[in-house]
Amino acid sequence: MFAETADGVFVSAPTGEILFCNPAAEKILEASAQQVVGQKCGEFFNGRDSNGNQLCQWPCPLKMTMSRGDLIQHFEMATRTRTGKPLWIDVSCVALPSEDNQPPTVVHLFRDVTASHQLEVLVRQQLAQSQLAMTEKNVSPVGELTRRELQIVTLMRTGATTAAIAEQLFISKTTVRNHIQNIFSKLKVHSRLEAVAYVNEMARREPAARS
What we know:
By secondary structure, the protein is of the alpha+beta class. It is built from 9 helices and 5 strands. It folds into 2 domains: 105 residues, Beta-Lactamase, CATH 3.30.450; 95 residues, Arc Repressor Mutant, subunit A (Orthogonal Bundle), CATH 1.10.10.10. The protein has a 5-stranded antiparallel sheet. It starts with 7 loop residues before the first strand and ends with a helix. The C terminus is likely disordered.
């Protein structure tokens, strides 16, 4: 069932060993199934959040949470490929039924979001630099975008449609539209074109702000 999915999939046992790894996961992780299966999930991924906090550890916080019947929201995690290349993945988890209150076997679905994450960081840095320059010139900076709004405006810069943004961020198209309206309000613009033009202008001003 998982062998043909476009997203990476791996399955971890109650004791943490990786039981299965699909071809998409092999491609993303730059590792063969033979190199992945049998490894401890936490040791192989050694995942961290955007602040550098350790996510992968034992006992596994995700398994403990899911064993209580609580749902896990999808999350982004920094890791590395088998060859050592930095990698950001967006992970969703599904627990399989377990017995005797044991930690569950967990199906992890993930996709490579390295490019969009790096672009988001670049946009955030450029906005911060430009807003600092505007503040120093006694010009009121625009309202600060939330992380989700920044993700959306970053994807808008790539030409992504509402449907594509919703799929990438695992949210509904209605939620995307609501975020876009908030972006318009904070940037004081009235269209996607104006919002993208504003962010591009902030990026263009960055070298001048540093000089």
